[in-house]
Amino acid sequence: MADLHSHALMSMYYWRKTLDTRGRTPWLLPYLPTSSHIDVPRIRESGVKLLTFAVYAFFRWPHRDCFETAKAQIALFEGLVARHPDVLVHAKTPAEIQAAVAGGKIAAVLALEGGHHVGNDPANLAYFKQRGVFYITLTHFINTPVGDTYLASRFTRTKGLRAFGRRLIGGMEKAGLIVDVAHSSEKGFWDVMEVAKRAPIYSHGGAKSVCRHDRHLTDDQSREIIRRDGLLGVILYPHYLRIGAVWGKMEDVFRHLDHWLSLGGEDHVAIGSDMGGVVLLKEIGDIAGMPRLHDALVKRFGETLSRKILFDNAMGYLKRNWPGGPDR
Ligand SMILES: [Zn+2]
User: Which of 130-144, 170-184, 239-253, 291-305 has the lowest mean pLDDT?
Assistant: First the structure.
């Protein structure tokens, strides 16, 4: 299995967990921010072969400080991998992911959730590329110099990408970093399509036709990502799958996948759980519960298609669009 989006680093940085020992997900308080979904003992049991660790610093002014926080989180990530060489490999290229998986290990890859981590200076992109970052989500929950989030765009004149964001996309593509349109406003999404040349990723979310949440993609947006040979990651957070759902059902995940499949997404759909940052579907519970997702998908979609959804689509996309490490 491949997971395009998780927040293990948030619990390391903000809640000071080492992730070395087994934690617990407290079901009675599922919204507790310290809810723990991921640690090394549970990663071992998860069947997840490619795990994306999203760097996330709460946005603040001056946002150049977020660059420092990102560096600190990356150092924590590198420490974690170094302490568990028998389990994790810090993969910086598609070839390194494949080698890790072939060797029975788990490929851990880095991503940034929010262009604010780049600070004021696009030259910082070189640092992220050098550390093996795979994609950068342009925005998060508040508007930044990069662009407007889906959440606040209705209150601004810009509504989409800002000048710094446009520059950033150019710099990212030059550096070999993938643009993630999750959290972008609708206008921001189309602004990105105007500027970006490479296939975009939508790392964690859903289809608006299935669940009318503002963060989700309209059918036109989903079709555009498919047309550009991009990747669509379905989130595993009940409320985003079906508004008001507290625990959620596997069926809620299937409905989003079914919809994207009906738009031609067979080779483009994948999983972006968002675990560690949200409440997970109760049937899954934590990363060690991912085999239940695997089994449910196989039962529903069959071996071949579920393989694509669970791993092959993500891996194929990476091979086509992630030019790999610093020495590419
Ligand atoms: Zn997110």
Answer: 130-144
Backbone angles phi, psi at 149, to 5 degrees: -85, 160
Ligand 1 midpoint to CA 181 (Å):
10
Question: 167 CA to middle of ligand 1, Å?
Answer: 22
Q: How far apart are CA 122 and CA 64, in angstroms?
A: 11
Flag whether the pTM goes above 0.85. Answer: yes
Q: Give the per-residue pLDDT at 27.
A: 61
Domains of the chain: residue spans and CATH: 2-321 (3.20.20.140)
First to last CA, the chain: 26
* CA angle (236 as vertex; 73, 90 as ends), nearest 5: 35
User: In terms of pLDDT, which residue wins out, 46 or 154?
Assistant: 46
Residues 177-198 have a mean pLDDT of: 94
CA 113 to ligand 1 center in whole angstroms? 7
C-alpha 80 to ligand 1 mean position (Å): 22
Give the whole-angstrom CA distance, residue 125 versus residue 119.
10
Which pair of structure tokens corresponds to residue 142? 């508040």
115: pLDDT confidence band, cut at 50, 70 and 90?
Answer: confident
CA of 118 to the centre of ligand 1 (A): 17
37 neighbors 277 (Cβ within 8 angstroms): no
- Using CB atoms within 10 Å of the CB of residue 265, give its burial: 0 to 12 exposed, 13 to 18 middle, 19+ buried: buried
State the Cα–Cα distance between residues 274 and 116, nearest whole angstrom.
19
* pLDDT tier, 278 (very low <50, low <70, confident <90, very high otherwise): confident
